[in-house]
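Exercise 7. Predict the joint structure of the components listed below.
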Amino acid sequence: MIINGTAIYVLWLREMKRYVRATSRIIGSLLQPLFFLVFLGLGFRKMPVPGLTAGMDYVRFLVPGILGMTLLFSSAMQGLSVLWDREFGFLKEIMVAPVSRTSIVLGRIAGGTTTTMIQGLLMLALSFVVGFRIHGFLLFLWALVFMILIAFTFIGLGLIFASRMKDMQGFGLIINFIIFPLFFLSGALYPLENLPPWIRILSYADPLTFGVDGLRGTLIGVSSHPLLLDFLLLSGFAVVMVMLGAYFFEKSESV
Amino acid sequence: MNAITVENLTRKFGDVTAVDGISFFVPQGELFGLLGPNGAGKTTTINMLATLLRPTSGRAEVGGFDVLKSRDDVRKNIGIVFQETALDGKLTGRENLEFHAMMYGLPKEERKRRIDDVLDLVELADKAKTLVEKYSGGMKRRLEIGRGLIQHPKVLFLDEPTLGLDAQTRRRIWDYVRRLNRDRKVTIILTTHYMEEADFLCDRIAIMDHGKFVALDTPARLKDILGGDVISLEIEGDTDVLDKAFTSLDGVKKYVRRGEVVNLTVEKGERRIPEIVTLAQQNGIAVACVHLRKPSLEDVFLHFTGHTIREQEAGIVERNRGMMTRRRRRS
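Solution:
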């Protein structure tokens, strides 16, 4: 297992070039979370949401959740982009090169994490426009760590699915039956305490739950679990997902 | 030394045996062709030799390295142009080449030199800064052929390099392929289902059908197997007399008459025409039309498989269509 720095760099570079050249994609993938933020935020602004700390504004509660959503969708797409490469044939060009599979996975994760972080930071900047403010600068640096961990986790998840699928046919299924449930179960939109206990159990199997809670803790200073617990659990998920993603990618045949 | 050695190579997809125990070798510097209809197993063979598919059984060496045990060494020594485009349309021509050169670990100056070199070779230097999605089919193909050469491969695989291209572009690609093989001494393995392509380019041809080799030889010798040229005559008159006259003629390997059309298989057909026409006239038969046909690889294919390439492909299309209707009915 040899790690090839040049290959990782050039895979990352390709991702960056594709990203900046797809302006419509950048805007498109920010619009969905922005709509969620604006319309849910405006719609529920005056309503008392059970489970919120006293005096907590709903929009303020919502922003870290919507940030989590942006990161979830962006990183899962990055993992799944192997499918596009397979569809357009470029995967073969990558796979036939004398580069270890591990380096290819690392290059993808590097590229995917960078674009996901940019998307997340753009989203956060937009939320400043609607009046959101961070809790403190030092905690914000920790928020960046949580953002990176969320990106790793779901790029890994995307890779697992992309490696198991031969074409784009199952793509809609994955978005609707995996990604959306992960989003709704994470407590991004409401406090998890409001869910019936049996569904809450599912929430604790969702890595994004700890991601969103960690983002809340670091961005608005309020979280359901201790930040350290969020950090450790999310790190665990990230390691497992990346390793599984790499494993399935290495095992898959590219044609 | 052989560039490629293959022993009993087999690949199954579920119940379907795509490649069925083929064995062959390709000496260094040869331009070797795999000829056969769609679905014959050509691409599967290439993908196994290029380490993209694992063989179900059997073994293969490319450039002296085992395709299973030394995948990275094989990858370093080959170039491949896939049947379907494998370019990133969102990158420019040069960026695609740059990506490739970096994946093969070439240092910066060397990259620039070689990229300029192949851009010149495939005459795309003036389009290097254009996004590949704006390229025509022929330009994409040329860029891919150029790309396959950047790492200076010992063996270059070309999977249907001219599929879907117009006649003029095809000619140009043939020229590149020949030049690569002659001037740069690259061993080339080419798959095609165009007879004239195999005939024009290849030193040796393996005819493949249903995952097996049915013949392997030089184009000339493959055609020799058919015994020579076919002279067709359209005649008017007493054909019984003619039958007698022609069957007793020297050097006639095969004689077939269907109504008023006569087919004679002879060697060096163009030299026999005057003699044959005179013989007919001596027997009081009027010759309305003479036609000379040199054997083509199409005839060779027919000879070995009992069907033409086109029939074979039509059959596959029919079968696929049948499967699709069945699937549709089920759902």
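Discussion. The mean pLDDT of chain A is 91.
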